[in-house]
Every structure is written in structure tokens, then in C-alpha cells.
Task: inverse folding
């Protein structure tokens, strides 16, 4: 999946966890059970966070990594928010999922998902 960008008008910086949960919960039959975040880096004015979530679906609970970049426009209440969503079976290279998130995930046969889980713990 590629990166998408949206604009948010707010006096306060958007919370990466709330932003991620709102987007994931919009998918029919998906429910975020737990999330945590870690600061990744600042690049071109974007403060980038990795949000790790345990997502419940009809098929079980899987791990998701949602990269959220937030950039403030000067002299306004506008923020540019970029996002990229990856499932654990895509082999994301971000390994900061909390024990709470990892503990909620169902077992899997996916090599990539199991490697991601091992590196995150």
C-alpha cells in the first residue's frame, strides 16, 4: 500500500494513536484492541511515528504498523498528515510493538509475521 496524505485543521497537534485508531476502525469488521507508538524520526518537517496495533477481524487478531507523519504549517491551524499502513505479514522494518499488543495477536504461519513478532519482543 502506498502513502496517503490528508490535511487536518486543529489547534492541537493530531495524536498519532488516535489518528491511527480512527482510520483502522473505519474498515468494516475491524476493531483496534490495543496500540502503542514510538517516535521514528523528523524529515522534511514531518515528525514521524510508528503506531503498532492489534486489530481484530473476522479472521482473527493481527498486528499492524501504521506510519504517521505530522507536519505543522506555520501561522495557521493546519497540519499535513501522511500515513502508510502495513500488516505484520508484509515484513515491516519497525519493531517497537509493546508486549500488550503482541500478547493479543493470534498465532500465524506467516514467516514475515513471526519474524516481525520475534524482533519486536
Result:
Amino acid at each position: 500500500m502506498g502513502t496517503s496524505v490528508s490535511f487536518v485543521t486543529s489547534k492541537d497537534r493530531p495524536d498519532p494513536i488516535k489518528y491511527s485508531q480512527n482510520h483502522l476502525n473505519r474498515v468494516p469488521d475491524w476493531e483496534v484492541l490495543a496500540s502503542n507508538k514510538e517516535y521514528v524520526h523528523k524529515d522534511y518537517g514531518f515528525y514521524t511515528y510508528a503506531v503498532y496495533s492489534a486489530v481484530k477481524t473476522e479472521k482473527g487478531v493481527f498486528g499492524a504498523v501504521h506510519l504517521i507523519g505530522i507536519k505543522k504549517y506555520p501561522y495557521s491551524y493546519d497540519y499535513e498528515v501522511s500515513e502508510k499502513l502495513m500488516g505484520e505479514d508484509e515484513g515491516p522494518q519497525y519493531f517497537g510493538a509493546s508486549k500488550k499488543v503482541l500478547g493479543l495477536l493470534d498465532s500465524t504461519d506467516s514467516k514475515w509475521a513471526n519474524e516481525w513478532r520475534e524482533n519486536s519482543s
Observations:
- Residues 4-115 form one domain.
- Residues 20 and 66 are 7 Å apart (CA to CA).
- The chain has a mean pLDDT of 91.
